[in-house]
Amino acid sequence: MLNYINVYYCKAVKLSLFIALLSSPLFVSAQLKRPGSIEYLKACNGFNGIKLGSDISELSGTDLSFLDNNNQIDTDSCLSYQYTNADVFKMGEALYMESIGLRVYKNKIVNIYLFFKRSEGYKVLRGFLADYGLFTSKPDDYVDIYDWKSRAVNLSLNYEIRMDMGVAVFTCNEIQTEILVKRHRAKIDALNHPDDKPIDLKSTTATTH
Question: What are the backbone angles phi and psi of residue 123, rounded to the nearest 5°?
Fold first, then answer.
């Protein structure tokens, strides 16, 4: 009988430890950050090693060129680059992006654009579903637009039939919010000082490093 009690007690202790492990924050966090959940989107924070919020200088200058040869900032004081490192273009077993664009604010990557053949849209969708779980919203049931939204990172996939190319856009929400706040303040300043001559931000140019 004593042996039976000891065996039973040992099994009970092991079961308790196992349950405690499963419910621990570290274990739960690790599980959520595995492929198949929105947490994995936040954990990856970008695409194939390109990290949102990172400094553009961390990427090799030989793999960067100004998008459409335009080295002027846009209305949000952002520069847009094309990234040509072929090692990053692969998504899945036999799926490759046509091109990759980066939008940069104060040298920090705010958007990653993946351009692909529209005919490959469903393959891209399947890849995102496997990696990030079910999309969080679909603005229209009749068009191929899908959104994965989280506090830190957003992902939008669009391959509508009227588009020549499909595009997926990763967004760093912290930097995007900073841009929107700046845009809002500029509008308020323009309303408060209608006679002031606006500064032409587009006259500022930059060069690749």
Answer: -65, -40
Q: How far is CA 11 from the centre of its chain?
A: 45
Torsions phi, psi for 176 (to 5 deg):
-60, -40
Amino acid of residue 196:
D
- Tokens 């335009």 belong to residue: 70
Between CA 192 and CA 201, with CA 196 as vertex, the angle to 5 degrees is 105
Say how far apart CA 179 and CA 108 lie, in whole Å: 12
Q: Domain ranges for the chain, please list them.
A: 33-203
What confidence category does residue 114 fall into, taking pLDDT thresholds of 50, 70 and 90? Answer: very high
Q: Which residues pair with 157 in a beta bridge?
A: 146, 168
Q: What's the pTM?
A: 0.77
Closest to 75 in 3D by CA, of 206, 182, 187, 202? 202
Per-residue pLDDT at 44: 96
